[in-house]
Write a structure and sequence with these properties.
The complex is a heterodimer of chains A (274) and B (280). Chain A has 274 residues and is mostly helical. Chain A contains 12 helices and no strands. Chain A is 71% helix and 0% strand. Chain B has 280 residues and is mainly α. Chain B is built from 11 helices and 2 strands. Classes of the chains: A mainly alpha (274), B mainly alpha (280).
Chain lengths: 274, 280
């Protein structure tokens, strides 16, 4: 073998990022074979956006503001929710579905016996690149919504938004993985998808509208509020710095917990042939 | 040898069909009772949807002196809590799953069975409903304790409701199966199914009570099947529909079930001609 392959063959530790990048490239190449799917996805995104807009216009035909949020502000929130949803559908959900399937069929063994960290491997194996259309449609809604917001958006707001969105991505990843790890105990997990999608829809509305018990649930138990509302707050001049700091601390704690829970779950996994 | 073979019990055809349904339903009850956690996952995800609508509309109702278009927060609560039962009832073998059935080669085996595949689906999901409703009861009690629904149905309404949720089940089964036939022609039906679901969402009373829709939308919805699978069953229990509207609604459900069945039969005949088993 050529010397260049030494790293891949175990001569040195393969860089985590490089593994992720390689999987990403393979995933993209796989998806590019199915180009018609782009148009299917485009059409599906249009339907999704259309339904969201109809609901918004219905709500605002009966009121001028919902819990202090005007229509254009809520449009931005919808944009953030769809954008983050697109990110989830592109990178997170396909991997979690694959993990569930692997546990069910016993094929997870193949991932576990590889030299790289198993959690990283199972998190980067698949990418559904056409779902990026959703990210773009969310971004369009966000921009359209923001043009209707009175106050101007400064560089700091935009930065805080991007940062909060990144934190949101980490939170949703952790939450999804925690749910999926349940597959080590509960075999039939396919409905978890519906559970997540259902709960994720709560992010379309500002977390403040929900009654107390539900508000705390979708903030701490299921971090949809942190993932969607906090970034949207950054853009509509509602974000207080302590909230951002809290979300960072929460994301770090949740990530550590997820890491522990993954290892704990793995110890309960006996493989297909064991 | 052949003289001793018993003749097929022709006169018992209906009885054996009833027998078949009863057995298939019992089987699905026993099977689904084993997957209580999976059923609850599904149900909790599903309950999130109406709870969101309920919270949004009762917030607006409170902001505007207690009602939107004459619907109070308590009535919204009744609408969306009954919604959860109706939604559970009208979950059927969905159109996208026909793709799975064809792709995995299951259909080839199903075709060898003596009855049309629709009977198996109808009976299996009908049995499942008994498990689902039993699991739903604690959720309904919880939601009622939190949201205080304003619900005072008459005895007639309760009777009509019990019939109407099964009507909704049959209407939706027929149309989902008909749309499912699309999978025999394309593997990219997802966009069409999404369009169908979005139309249903808006015109059925799933998203909002149809009263909140503009007048022309309501008129439009009257002439389509969607309303009879969501709005009508819910309103038969929560609104003060006249006896005439209640009976007309049940009639509409029968009519749409028949129309759906005829459509399915035509689609199925055309579809099955195109079918060649994977690997054949």
């Amino acid at each position: 073998m050529a010397g260049g392959d030494q790293a891949v063959l175990g001569g040195g530790r393969v860089n985590t990022l490089r593994v992720g990048w390689l999987f990403f490239k393979v995933g993209v190449m796989n998806e590019l074979q199915y180009r018609v799917n782009f148009f299917v996805q485009l059409f599906q995104s249009l339907i999704q956006v259309g339904t969201g807009l109809v609901m918004l216009s219905l709500v605002y035909s009966h009121t001028t503001e919902l819990n202090g949020w005007k229509e254009s502000e809520l449009l931005s929130l919808l944009g953030v929710q769809i954008l983050l949803g697109g990110f989830i559908h592109t990178f997170i959900q396909p991997n979690m579905e694959l993990l569930m399937q692997d546990v069910q069929q016993g094929t997870l063994d193949y991932a576990l016996t590889k030299p790289e960290d198993a959690q990283i491997l199972i998190s980067v194996r698949q990418v559904r690149i056409w779902q990026v259309v959703e990210v773009i449609s969310g971004l369009v809604l966000l921009i359209v919504g923001l043009t209707g917001v009175q106050s101007s958006i400064g560089a700091v707001d935009a930065l805080a938004f991007t940062f909060a969105l990144g934190i949101g991505g980490v939170l949703v990843y952790c939450f999804w993985l925690i749910l999926t790890i349940g597959a080590f105990w509960v075999v039939r997990m396919e409905h978890v998808l519906e559970l997540f999608e259902g709960i994720y829809q709560t992010g379309r509305w500002p977390v403040g509208v929900y009654p107390g018990w539900l508000r705390y649930s979708v903030t701490f138990l299921v971090p949809v509020a942190f993932a969607v509302t906090v970034p949207a707050e950054a853009l509509t001049s509602r974000l207080h710095w302590p909230t951002l700091v809290l979300s960072v601390a929460f994301a770090a704690a949740l990530f550590a917990f997820t890491r522990w829970f993954w290892r704990f779950g793995l110890r309960h996994y006996s493989g297909a042939s064991a | 040898m052949s003289s001793r073979a018993a003749p097929l019990p022709e006169e018992g055809r209906l009885r054996s069909l009833v027998d078949f349904y009863a057995t298939q339903m019992r089987t699905s009850v026993v099977a689904q009772l084993q997957y209580r956690a999976a059923n609850y996952f599904y149900m909790l995800g599903m309950v999130a949807e109406p709870v969101i609508y309920l919270v949004v509309w009762s917030t607006i109702a409170r902001q505007h002196g207690g009602a939107v278009n004459g619907i109070t927060a308590g009535q919204f609560a009744a609408y969306y809590i009954v919604w959860t039962l109706v939604r559970n009832m009208n979950i059927v073998f969905g159109a996208p799953f026909w793709e799975w059935r064809i792709r995995e080669g299951r259909l080839a085996g199903d075709l060898l069975r003596p009855l049309n595949i629709l009977h198996y689906d109808l009976a299996y999901f009908a049995g499942w409903k008994f498990v689902v409703v039993a699991l739903w009861l604690p959720i309904a009690v919880g939601l009622s304790a939190v949201f205080h629904p304003d619900l005072h149905p008459s005895a007639l309404q309760v009777v009509v409701f019990v019939v109407a949720i099964w009507g909704a089940y049959f209407v939706r089964s027929m149309f989902q199966a008909t749309i499912g036939m699309l999978n025999f022609w394309t593997t990219r039906g997802a966009a069409v199914f999404d369009l169908y679901m979005a139309t249903e969402m808006l015109l059925s009373g799933r998203l909002v009570p149809l009263q909140l829709m503009p007048g022309w939308v309501q008129t439009f919805a009257d002439f389509l099947p969607f309303k009879w699978t969501f709005g009508f069953p819910i309103e038969s229990l929560v609104s003060n529909l006249s006896t005439r509207s209640l009976l007309l609604g049940l009639g509409a459900q029968v009519m749409w079930t028949v129309i759906g069945y005829v459509l399915f039969t035509f689609a199925w005949r055309a579809a099955i001609k195109r079918f060649s088993a994977v690997g054949a």
